[in-house]
UniProtKB/TrEMBL annotation:
It is found in: Cytoplasm. Its cofactor is Mg(2+). It comes from Hyalomma marginatum. PANTHER family: PHENYLALANINE--TRNA LIGASE, MITOCHONDRIAL, PHENYLALANYL-TRNA SYNTHETASE. Transmembrane segments: none annotated. Belongs to the class-II aminoacyl-tRNA synthetase family. Phe-tRNA synthetase alpha subunit type 1 subfamily. Residues 116-330 form the Aminoacyl-transfer RNA synthetases class-II family profile domain. It holds the Pfam family Phe_tRNA-synt_N. This is Phenylalanine--tRNA ligase alpha subunit. Tetramer of two alpha and two beta subunits. It is an enzyme of class 6 (ligase). Its main location: cytoplasm. It catalyses: tRNA(Phe) + L-phenylalanine + ATP = L-phenylalanyl-tRNA(Phe) + AMP + diphosphate + H(+). Keywords: Aminoacyl-tRNA synthetase, ATP-binding, Cytoplasm, Ligase, Magnesium, Metal-binding, Nucleotide-binding, Protein biosynthesis.
């Protein structure tokens, strides 16, 4: 028993110094292998008496079970230590600053629409909306656009195939719908997508338009001029803006006019609004045609009004020096990083 005690004490001493799986494997071979210290004790059983075998075998088993139990416990501790080291190496320092998400930007068209709405709301207008799929009455007939007008042709207008209707060519239909349900005084703007069959550097099949309408008693052309002047000066943020009013023709207004504003085109990269000696066409307008008012049951003996329309893309390009209209719709994120808001 004294030899087994010595083996046990030696095992405990060496087990305390084991620090990795290799040392643990070698220790197991030393005490439990075929040529181990414990195997030498088991070899003595062959020369012992039956009583000695019984006693010695019991003592050997006790020592062997202790060694096995101790080895298993040590292995478990080494595994836990190894896992802790791996977790520590892969841990995330929550005190470090995180990676921020890339913030999106507002598209220039959306920014212009919002800016226009704010300007006209401050001027006392209300914003109204309508359907993009229109019928012939609201898009053409009610606006005094006769059946022979070129705008009704297939090469200019997108007609629906499976249902009656068309993609609206302007937002004027919204004004007709509003006047059908509301009597003067009226002061509204309408904006949104419109569609025409055209595509080049200055035209796209889909674009955005804003139109305004004022109907009431004693409304005259002077009110129209004052409204447009106030709007353009506020939008382009200039104190003075020389404008030129040219006689024009629109089926839904009489008299009609197109407006030019002074600018400086001396540099190719930038157009300076309100200065220089050049003129730039910006929008159309006029006094609402008597026939249009009669189509929506407004008494033309008491009321009259004015209307105006402007391309939102055109305003956006002029204000932010965007050279090609098509880039507004191509979805290039690099472009959006430059011109977005």
């Amino acid at each position: 028993m004294s030899q087994l005690n010595s083996i046990n004490e030696l095992f405990v001493s060496e087990l305390a110094n084991v620090s990795n799986f290799t040392e643990l494997f070698n220790l197991k071979a030393k005490f439990l292998g075929k040529k181990s210290l414990l195997a030498e004790q088991m070899a003595k059983l062959g020369t012992s008496t039956s009583e000695e075998k019984k006693q010695l075998g019991l003592e050997i088993n006790i020592v062997r079970e202790y060694i096995l139990k101790s080895l298993n416990e040590k292995q478990k501790k080494l595994e836990e230590l190894e896992l802790a080291q791996k977790l520590n190496a892969q841990s995330i320092d929550i005190t470090l600053p995180g990676r921020g998400f890339t913030r999106g930007k507002i598209h220039p068209i959306t920014n212009t629409i919002n800016e226009l709405k704010n300007i006209f709301v401050r001027m006392g207008f209300s914003h109204v909306e309508g359907p993009e799929i229109e019928d012939d009455w609201h898009n053409f007939t009610a606006l005094n656009i006769n059946e022979s007008h070129p705008a009704r042709q297939m090469h200019d207008t997108f007609y629906m195939q499976n249902i009656e209707g068309l993609l609206r060519t302007h937002t004027s239909g919204v004004q007709i719908r509003y006047m059908e349900k509301n009597q003067p005084p009226i002061r509204i703007i309408s904006s949104g997508r419109v569609y025409r069959s055209d595509y080049d550097a200055t035209h796209t099949p889909m674009f955005h338009q804003l139109e305004g309408l004022v109907i009431g008693e004693e409304i005259n052309f002077g009110h129209l001029k004052g409204c447009i002047a106030q709007f353009l000066k506020e939008f382009f943020r200039v104190k003075e803006l020389p404008m030129r009013w040219r006689s024009s023709y629109f089926p839904f207004t009489e008299p009609s006019a197109e407006i030019d504003m002074k600018c400086n085109r001396s540099t190719k990269k930038e157009i300076r609004i309100g200065e220089g000696n050049d003129w730039l066409e910006i929008m159309g307008c006029g006094m609402v045609h008597e026939r249009v008012l009669k189509n929506v049951a407004i008494d033309t003996m008491k009321c009259q009004g004015f209307a105006f329309g402007v391309g939102i893309e055109r305003l956006t390009m002029l204000k932010h020096n965007i050279p090609d209209l098509r880039t507004l719709f191509e979805g290039d994120m690099r472009w959006h990083e430059i011109y977005g808001f």
